[in-house]
Structures are given as structure tokens and as C-alpha cells.
Amino acid sequence: MSAYDPNNIFAKIIRGEIPSYKIFETEHVLAILDAFPCAPGHSLLIPKNCEEQSVETMSPEASAKLFAELPRLCKLVKEATKCEAVNVLSNLGAAAGQMVFHPHIHVIPRTGEDGLLKHPPACNGMVDKETAMKMLESMKE
Known about the structure:
Elements: H1 9-14, E1 22-25, E2 29-33, E3 43-47, H2 60-68, H3 70-81, E4 85-89, E5 105-110, H4 129-138
Antiparallel strand pairs: 1-2, 2-3, 3-5, 4-5
């Protein structure tokens, strides 16, 4: 993975070099409306003072400060949009769809018939014990 780019669009927004539609701001995070929303009210939660490329590389302390504000943003999005539910997601890496390499969490308002992609059901049925045990072994630190 390449080095953090301090001139990525979220870093510029945090520094005030690019305008945004701010929902709220704390010492540690900035919540804004997504400039290219999937649905009205699609929002982003972005850590400030962070030079990481994704949530995966953040320290436990930094990620705790980010995720501490997630319930607040989810409630604000649901109340403002009157949606039934929200998707909360973070794309970690280009193959997953990450386009800005600064940690951020999407909060996307959802309704039953909005036509947006939903998590697909299991493709190959329920995991069997042998496969699960092999995967668990490979996940050990």
C-alpha cells in the first residue's frame, strides 16, 4: 500500500480548503453529507488528525474516537430522512470500492423498496465445521 496522501479530498475538507455540508464536528471527527450520495441523507463520518488510509490501520484509540460518534450520526440520519434503516459501512481498499484513502464510515439511509444493493444471502449455504475450523486457524494472530 502506498503512503498516506495528505492532499486527499477528506484531508482538504478537514482543513477547510474544500467546502462541505457539515452535520457536526468534534475535536476528533467530522460528519458531513456525502457529495455523491446513494440516497438523500447519505453521510460520512471522518476522523480528523489522522494519517491512515483506512479504518483497518487506525490505532484502537483513534478508531474508538471515530466509532464513538457513529450512533449519533446514525440517529441524526434516521430522524432527518425518516428512513426505515441505515447501512453502516467502510470500504477498505480499492477492490472493495474505496476511492478516498482516508478512513471514513458511510451511513446510508434505507427503505425497503429503495432499489439499492443489499448484502447478498450466502452463496454456498451454511459453512461446515471443517471449513470454519480451517478459517479460524488461518485467522489466529
